[in-house]
Amino acid sequence: MTRLKDVVKADEGEIFDVELEEDVLKANRKLAQENRLLLQKHGVKAIDIMGAIGAGKTSLIEKLVERLKGHYRIAAFKGDLTTTIDAEMISRHNVEVVAINTGKECHLDANLVRKALQRLNLESIDLLFIENVGNLICPAEFPLGSEKRIVVISVTEGPFMVVKHPFIFMDTDVVVINKIDLASAMGVDAKKLEADVKRISPKAKVVAVNCRTGEGVEGVVKALGL
Ligand code: MG
Ligand code: ZN
Predict the structure, then answer these.
(1) 153 Cα: distance to centroid of ligand 1 (angstroms)
(2) How far is CA 86 from CA 24, 123, 129, 214, in A?
(3) Which structural domains are found in the chain, ordered by start?
(4) pLDDT tens digits for range 1-50
(5) For residue 86, which ligand has an atom nearest its CA?
């Protein structure tokens, strides 16, 4: 006999502010489309980096910047609530970084990215990494105008992290499984995480990496077609 009681489920229209939210999402999609056109006009390839807090988004960007800066002119946006710690970390690799502070918001939106784009000379860059706030839920619903989307997950987030957050994986081009060196210590099977991703998003490319050592980063470069 289970002691688990019936699940409380939100019905359609029952969540507070659902109509307001529809308007917000629609406005965001329009701005994202404008961002996309602006980036295309200047030949800038923008890549979203999403994932939970501590998954390794910044570390991945640092490794990608080191690997690619001889081939592309790179810039980065870094979304955080109030700090610029990650932005400073990335800028140490000698690339232009715009820190975007969202205040209380738990995700970037296309309007904030539009403002950050005004800080760059788009003619002087080829590649733009946009690191979102650490969050697996709302970034899925707020496209920013990028060409590609990466989700970084790590084995330290446990064996069920993919199945628990399906929406973030739906529109994603590349899924990076980080901290692969800790998989056996964590009792997490990276192949199972990969299979979970493929069930949600059959077209997504999945790459296992260790962002501390750089192992696997070449596979991410290839998966992005860079
Ligand atoms: Mg970070
Ligand atoms: Zn949010």
Answers:
(1) 12
(2) 28, 25, 13, 18
(3) 4-223 (3.40.50.300)
(4) 678 778 877 777 666 666 667 888 999 999 999 999 999 999 999 999 99
(5) 1
